[in-house]
Design a protein that fits this description.
By secondary structure, this protein is an alpha+beta fold. The chain has four domains: 233 residues, no CATH class; 171 residues, Beta-Lactamase (2-Layer Sandwich), CATH 3.30.450.40; 97 residues, no CATH class; 198 residues, Alpha-Beta Plaits, CATH 3.30.70. The protein is 45% helix and 20% strand. Helix 8 packs antiparallel against helix 10, helix 11 runs parallel beside helix 15 and helix 17 packs antiparallel against helix 18. The longest helix has 31 residues.
Length: 761
């Protein structure tokens, strides 16, 4: 990249690129404006265009004027830059001797930013096309034409990535299209046979239909003649976007402390305030804890008595309930805590108090949960703008701390929330955290599994890949007719080989490797192929029209699969949740429901959750669980006719007669884990039982349209045999019971199963 002095479009380049009359008019207009609209009779003594030097070399705005000219069938070329200030050159890499907005600029953007910027340019070309075709102006609204986009660009002078909000603008006349290729005209007629309204154009831009997508794909250089200029202007919004990203991290519903999200938030905080380091101060009863080295795996913790912090900047911040800026800590150092910060190299402090109903910090009347501090090794590192910015972050920081200490317990199942609220109260009093345990609860586990989902997804992947490869082959075959290159013919043979292999089936990695092949070996050549004939351009347009924007590939069959799985899971979840309402009336119990390819439920019930719990309620809950699973099975009978699929649903209930202990602590990934070796055995069985087989026949113990009960002891079987009899008497299941032994699982043996047919409704 050229050095900074050569990266700005110099005045000589401007005069070469811009018509002399235009330049002089700009100078005269500005001179007139400076003197109240009166044209000076004598030239001023100082330079005539000081504003040009200001805009060009000293403005923090991003500014450039790009010349847009092109003819039908002409190859794509870089756009000449008529004017660009220094900041634009630094961010885009344009040098004075080049002076063209070429692909090197776009290559520096992320793929998402490239697509968005191209889409903004295309809106201006669409406006010109509609004016040319229908003789109507302003069919694309100003709001959509000038809609801003935020993109990331690296400042070559500092190396820092900046967030720039860009807008594209044209003069009153806009771009002028003077000729249109018949292919583009045909796409336009297909999309709108009659002149569209502004509302119709806006609707298509925001929610494009296939015909409009094809129109946009054909709206590219070479398909029309055009002239005019586009103004690119922007402003650095790095601080605003950093604040926005920080707030989004902080206001989630999960705890931030001790997670990767905290590391990200901490880095953004330091970046936003250009701070050297950060720390946390929290109150625990009559003590305060200072946490430093927050970017390390193990934080450094120092504990201070609240009396030792009297007169400190920390308590001043909490007392004022406002952000406090300490320009030079060495001039206002009265406590041991502050002296230790100075010993670590701290000179400036920015203190952000977090106010909420929780533990109190010192004598402050404001209820506090903590304080966030930012440090710098330089004195006077923070200013009033930093204080304002920090003040705007207080609600988000407070929310993050609240979720980490107290309200992380609010999104809890109602049956066990009371125990988490007790723990929250303990923490608010400054007591150390402890595990939350529910002892001697009965587990009830069941699963409704969608069988054949993996095969169905593989077929969907196969169909989508075949569609995309055949479209790619059509492009290459069209190109081979005009390019006349042996390499093109070999590329077509490669695509043929891949298609033949895909027709036989897909491998585990095909979805990734084959799409990467198309992107790196085929799509990359589309711009070259498109130069050779209109037929190739049409084939490329069809290929691109088939690509799903969200997945960047053909995603038709997989979209149907995803929708089908979603509908099935939704049906099962809705059915189960209806039964949960009646089950909770039997006895309050914890129920966790997970949906992947089917649903599985985990119930815990007992005196630890409901002090009024009895043996009768346990049996009633178990029987209701069986009835609920049978209802899910009945809902699945219509699967084939509704969704035209080979997928089926199998249903299983796992019996355990003895109790388990469940625990929640800071290391628990799920809400609850079982505790103890005996209880762990139950968890192992849960993970493997749905794939288990009959020890005698080798067939899966679960079968479509049937309910399978897995148990260990004769006592468990006698109880559940009675439930199956009740279900048969209700007409829910058949009377014939199939029984067998479960093939030994890893670390678990001796399980038995019983299986019955579920009757349709």
């Amino acid at each position: 990249m050229a050095n900074e002095s050569s990266q700005c479009i110099d005045p000589q380049f401007i005069s070469r690129s811009m018509p002399t009359s235009d330049t002089s008019n700009m100078i005269n207009d500005h001179t007139s404006l400076r003197q109240g609209g009166e044209t000076p009779s004598t030239p001023p003594c100082r330079p005539q265009v000081p504003w040009l030097d200001l805009i060009q070399n000293h403005s923090h705005l991003v500014m450039a004027v790009v010349d847009i000219t092109g003819e039908i069938s002409s190859p794509p070329r870089a756009h000449p830059v008529l004017f660009a200030n220094q900041y634009f050159c630094r961010l885009t890499g344009i040098a004075a001797e080049a002076g063209h907005l070429d692909l090197s600029f776009f290559d520096r953007l992320t793929v998402a930013d490239q697509k968005t910027l191209q889409e903004r340019f295309r809106r201006h070309f669409l406006q010109a096309l509609l004016r040319y075709a229908y003789n109507q102006t302003n069919l694309v609204s100003e709001r959509l034409l000038n809609e801003p986009l935020v993109m990331s660009l690296a400042d070559s002078a500092t190396g820092q990535v900046r967030q720039i909000e860009l807008r594209l603008r044209t003069a009153a006349g806009g771009l002028e299209i003077n000729a249109v290729d018949p292919l583009l005209n045909a796409h336009l007629s297909t999309c709108w046979a009659e002149p569209p309204s502004r509302e119709q154009v806006a609707t298509q831009l925001l929610s494009p239909e296939p015909a409009f997508k094809q129109l946009l794909a054909a709206l590219k250089p070479g398909n029309y003649g055009v002239s005019g200029q586009i103004l690119i202007e922007g402003i650095d919004v790095t601080e605003r976007e950093t604040s926005k990203a920080l707030i989004q991290l902080l206001v989630g519903h999960e705890s931030v402390l001790g997670t990767q999200r905290f590391d990200q938030a901490n880095e953004l905080m330091k970046q936003l305030f250009k701070a050297t380091d950060s720390f946390l101060l929290s109150a625990e009863n009559n003590q305060a804890q200072l946490f430093t080295a927050l970017d390390q795996p193990e934080w450094i913790t120092a504990t201070y008595a609240m009396d030792a912090l009297q007169g400190s900047a920390f308590l001043r911040a909490t007392g004022q309930r406002a952000v406090v800026n300490i320009p030079d800590l060495s001039l206002a150092c009265s406590t041991q805590c502050e002296r230790e910060l100075i010993a670590q190299g701290t000179r400036s402090l920015l203190l952000i108090p977090l106010v909420m109903r929780s533990a109190r910090l010192g004598d402050s009347a404001a209820p506090m949960v903590g304080l966030v501090g930012l440090t710098s090794t330089k004195p006077y590192a923070f200013d009033q703008a930093d204080c304002s910015r920090a003040t705007s972050l207080i609600p988000a920081l407070t929310a993050a701390m609240r979720h980490s200490v107290q309200d992380r317990f609010t999104n809890i199942h109602p049956s066990v929330r009371w125990r988490f609220e007790q723990e929250s109260e303990r923490l608010s009093l400054g007591l150390p955290s402890g595990p939350i345990v529910f002892e001697s609860v009965y587990p009830l586990y069941g699963i409704s599994d969608i069988r054949g989902s993996s095969d169905e997804r593989n077929r969907a992947i196969q169909q989508d890949l075949l569609t995309q490869f055949r479209l790619a082959l059509a492009v290459v075959e069209q190109a081979s007719q005009t390019v006349g290159n042996a390499l093109v013919e070999q590329l077509a043979l490669d695509l043929d080989d891949h298609i033949m292999a895909l027709e036989q089936g897909v491998t585990v990695d095909a979805e990734v490797t084959l799409l990467r092949y198309l992107q790196n070996e085929v799509e990359v050549h589309f711009p070259y192929f498109a130069q050779h004939s209109a037929e190739v351009e049409e084939a490329i347009a069809q290929y691109q029209a088939a690509i799903d924007a969200d997945h960047n590939c053909v995603y038709q069959s997989r979209a149907i699969y995803d929708e089908t799985i979603g509908h099935i899971n939704g049906l099962l979840r809705e059915t189960w949740n209806k039964w949960q309402q009646s089950m909770q009336t039997i006895t309050p119990h914890y129920c966790d429901l997970e949906a992947t390819d089917g649903i599985d439920h985990m119930i815990y019930a007992g005196k630890a959750i409901d002090p009024k719990f009895t043996e009768f309620q346990l049996q009633a809950l178990r029987y209701e669980q069986m009835r609920a699973v049978c209802d899910c099975a009945r809902k699945g009978f219509a699967l084939k006719s509704i969704y035209n699929t080979d997928m089926t649903i199998t249903h299983l209930v796992l019996v355990q007669g003895f109790t388990v202990d469940i625990v929640h602590d800071e290391t628990t990934e799920r809400l609850f884990d079982v505790r103890g070796t005996r209880d762990t055995r139950y968890e192992i069985v849960k993970k493997r039982i749905d794939k288990a087989c009959d020890a005698e026949t080798g067939d899966r113990i679960t079968q479509p349209g049937m309910l399978t009960v897995v148990y260990s002891t004769s006592e468990e079987w006698q109880e559940y045999k009675r439930y199956l009899h009740y279900l048969h008497r209700e007409g829910t299941v058949g009377g014939h019971i199939e029984q067998g032994t479960v093939e030994p699982l890893q670390g678990v043996s001796g399980l038995k199963f019983a299986r019955v047919q579920v009757n349709p409704e």
